[in-house]
Design a protein that fits this description.
The chain contains 11 helices and 13 strands. The protein starts with a helix and ends in an 11-residue tail after the last strand. It has 3 domains: 155 residues, no CATH class; 106 residues, Orthogonal Bundle (Helix Hairpins), CATH 1.10.287; 149 residues, Heat Shock Protein 90. The chain is elongated and about 135 Å long. The protein has a 5-stranded mixed sheet with strand order 8-10-11-13-12, with helices on one face. It is an alpha+beta fold.
């Protein structure tokens, strides 16, 4: 898939996901407002019913006086005309009864208060009197006294939790399904990005391998063609020269093929460590001797600091040599015109550390995360100016883990890299990596 279409599809999917989330939030908000409106409506009806029942309990047909401008339903008993007289127990029982019938019998506080002095005359306001006075759940007691003088108001501290409890099931399902969609979308996008990167790395690997194979194939073809000429066959020196060239290039191709087959074997865990006692310092000396000529030919140097007190361990010398060879080779390839490579060792209670530092190009944080992945190569502009297939450090880390150790890197762009190889002294082979 072309990058343009890939980005377009991802953006469309992201916008669609945002639309789904917005719709869910909008639905939850509307459901909340609807439940809140229903709650307020039921409380209002319950309060009016309480006042009506209270009026019927207090009023007597023979003792009704009408207030000017008040309809017959607002008749005031003589017994309460001069002042408000309500039985507190009666009011409390009526409120509990009505709220229970409307399914909102949660903890509530109420008060009968005067609008003239804002004082509570009756109820259980406790510390919520200021909230009760400003509560939207209030009703005038004008049917029991003068209009707009006394009010019965109720405050529900648990109103929010009551509404949440009614919406909890749907809200929880909405959150779960939305989270699943977000997770699935994110995982899919990340998987696609990883697949694209892997495809690019494999493509680079194939290109590099093709580039590396083209040279020996061309050399073998040319040497074979020369050997077919009679004038060359009659010259023993030239025959040996071309035969040697064919042999060397054939070994080079075999080495390339074995390198790839080794990675396949690592993936299937089809190899075994030939464990024996290994002198780490001696192994490092041998490797440094083979790399010193290459580094010094470029005007650089290799400094060796073998400071480990213990340097004998149990391991596979061939594979351990391959690990260090890959790390040192990486330091040499990615260093500037004059490589400065420092190899040091130090021992701990359980193992030995081998640190390889260089003054190379370094890596960014994102490159450090990928450097041990199969086929990955740090970009350097021209893909063929630095030889390699992106397999060396991958193999090195796999083999380090097979020995029960680890291979890590610290690096800053433009300030070189430091690879740290830890190997335990004893036989700590990891069975997950050994078949």
């Amino acid at each position: 898939m072309k990058p343009f279409w890939f980005k377009t599809i991802v953006w469309i999917a992201a916008v669609s996901l945002a639309g789904i989330i917005f719709t869910q939030v909008y639905w939850v908000r509307n459901a909340w407002l609807l439940k809140e409106e229903q709650f307020d409506s039921r409380v209002k009806v319950a309060l009016k019913t309480v006042v009506n029942r209270l009026y019927k309990q207090i009023a007597s047909p023979a003792k009704v006086v009408l207030i000017a401008g008040c309809p017959p339903s607002c008749a005031i008993p003589d017994s309460v005309k001069s002042g408000l007289s309500i039985d507190g127990y009666l009011l409390d029982s009526l409120l509990v009864d009505e709220f229970k019938g409307t399914d909102i019998n949660r903890g509530f506080y109420y008060a009968v208060y005067s609008t003239l002095d804002k004082k509570s005359l009756l109820g259980n306001p406790d510390r919520y009197f200021s909230e009760i006075v400003t509560s939207p759940h209030s009703v005038s007691l004008s049917c029991l006294h003068e209009a707009n003088v006394y009010y019965l108001a109720v405050f529900f501290p648990g109103k929010r939790s009551f509404i949440i409890s009614q919406l909890m099931g749907w809200m929880l399902l909405s959150v779960i399904f939305t989270a699943i969609i977000i997770f699935s979308f994110s995982w899919t996008v990340l998987a696609l990005i990883r697949q694209r990167k892997l495809a690019e790395m494999k493509s680079d690997f194939v290109n590099n391998m093709t580039h590396e194979l083209r040279t020996p194939v061309s050399a073998i073809s040319l040497a074979s063609e020369m050997l077919l000429k009679p004038m060359v066959l009659s010259n023993r020196e030239k025959v040996e020269k071309y035969a040697s060239l064919i042999f060397d290039q054939n070994n080079r191709m075999r080495s390339l093929v074995e390198h790839v087959l080794q990675v396949s074997a690592f993936d299937r865990h089809e190899y075994r460590l030939n464990l024996a006692e290994v002198d780490v310092h001696e192994m490092i000396d041998d490797l440094v001797a083979s790399f010193r000529l290459i580094v010094e030919d470029r005007g650089g140097s290799i400094t060796l600091k073998t400071e480990a007190d213990r340097y004998l361990l149990v391991g596979d010398r061939l594979y351990l040599t391959n690990i260090l060879s890959s790390v040192i080779d990486n330091a040499e390839k990615y260093s500037p015109a004059k490589p400065q490579i420092v190899i040091s060792t130090r021992s701990s209670e359980h193992g030995i550390y081998i640190i390889v530092s260089d003054n190379g190009v370094g890596m960014t944080a994102s490159q450090r995360k990928l450097v041990f992945q199969k086929f990955y190569r740090v970009p350097t502009g021209n893909k063929h100016n630095i030889k390699g297939y992106g397999l060396g450090l991958y193999n090195a880390q796999v083999l380090a883990k097979a020995h029960g150790g680890s291979l890590t890197v610290t690096s800053e762009l433009g300030r070189g890299s430091t690879f740290s190889l830890y190997l335990p002294f004893g036989e700590f082979g990891n069975s997950d990596y050994i078949s």
